[in-house]
Amino acid sequence: MKFKAQQIADILEGDIVGNPDEEVSKLSKIEEGEKGSLTFLSNPKYNSYIYTTNASIAIVNKSFIPEKDITTTLIKVDDAYKSFSKLLEFYNEVKNNKSGREQPHFISESSSIGDHEYIGAFAYIGENVKIGNNVKIYPNTYIGDNTVIGNNSTIFAGVKIYSDTIIGNNCKIHSGAIIAADGFGFAPDENGEYNAIPQIGNVIIEDNVDIGAATTIDRATLGSTIIRKGVKLDNQIQIAHNVEIGKNTVIASQTGIAGSTKIGESCMIGGQVGVAGHIKIGNNVKVLAQAGVTKSLKDNAFVNGTPAFKFNDYNKSYVHFKNLPKIVANINQLEEELKTQTKK
């Protein structure tokens, strides 16, 4: 796909300095720009690259004033970073603007699909499924019986959505994610053998949720596992049965959340965090990477460590962690001196 500078300027409501007919077909970093590529400049520490880049078009702030000649066509906007992000979204929409139904695929006669759909090859859509308008379902996707998918949602290749799942509007579920597999529920019998407890609940994913590749969200034992509006989940996250995640919370890769835990709104949870089951995490909580959360946290908590404790306390303690061998040696020496003094 090729775009002219004038087309890009119209999308971004920017002003052109240079050739409005300059064409680009790819994106690049400013320091790696080459002919036919589009880049951007927002951080002043990269200003020097604008004079050496081979990119054909660069998006810059209106406040930028060149100190010497520039061969690259400029598009001046109020905020270059935001405008470039907007352009990336537009590019993705154009790139992923698929429609129609590829063959082969299977759609149950009892299911309904809205307008302007895309159904990829080898997709399977079970009984009584309801799919809204402008939904894209990429190849090799499985959608189980009685599932509901709202308008403008995208289900990427290889996603598996088990029965009775409810997915809202404007959601994205990336490749390899598994939604509503059985929760990890087993009970030991008198012989010490573990027997599966039937998991008969479902998963509810509200509007504007993004779910990363290979992330798994288990169905509830009873009731629902719930992902609230605006939640963003990274790749390879495990959400156990009956968990609830509050709106606009973001969670980084490889985090695991055990069953029946409730996480509040607008939380930020780093990568490889472990969260114990049956606890409650408040609103606006920040948990740094690799922390282990074993007890409930109040609103606005900021924690680190395993088990996690207050961030400032952790930093103070960490200074001593590194010096523990020296501290122990000093204590041993003091004890010996004290014994000697006592004998005297």
From TrEMBL:
It catalyses: a UDP-3-O-[(3R)-3-hydroxyacyl]-alpha-D-glucosamine + a (3R)-hydroxyacyl-[ACP] = a UDP-2-N,3-O-bis[(3R)-3-hydroxyacyl]-alpha-D-glucosamine + holo-[ACP] + H(+). The active site is at H241 (proton acceptor). Keywords: Acyltransferase, Lipid A biosynthesis, Lipid biosynthesis, Lipid metabolism, Repeat, Transferase. Pfam families: Hexapep, LpxD. Pathway: Bacterial outer membrane biogenesis; LPS lipid A biosynthesis. Its EC number is 2.3.1.191. GO terms for molecular function: UDP-3-O-[(3R)-3-hydroxyacyl]-glucosamine N-acyltransferase activity. Residues 23-89 form the UDP-3-O-[3-hydroxymyristoyl] glucosamine N-acyltransferase non-repeat region domain. Transmembrane segments: none annotated. HAMAP family: LpxD (MF_00523). Homotrimer. PANTHER family: UDP-3-O-ACYLGLUCOSAMINE N-ACYLTRANSFERASE, UDP-3-O-ACYLGLUCOSAMINE N-ACYLTRANSFERASE 1, MITOCHONDRIAL-RELATED. Catalyzes the N-acylation of UDP-3-O-acylglucosamine using 3-hydroxyacyl-ACP as the acyl donor. Is involved in the biosynthesis of lipid A, a phosphorylated glycolipid that anchors the lipopolysaccharide to the outer membrane of the cell. Belongs to the transferase hexapeptide repeat family. LpxD subfamily. This is UDP-3-O-acylglucosamine N-acyltransferase. The gene is lpxD.
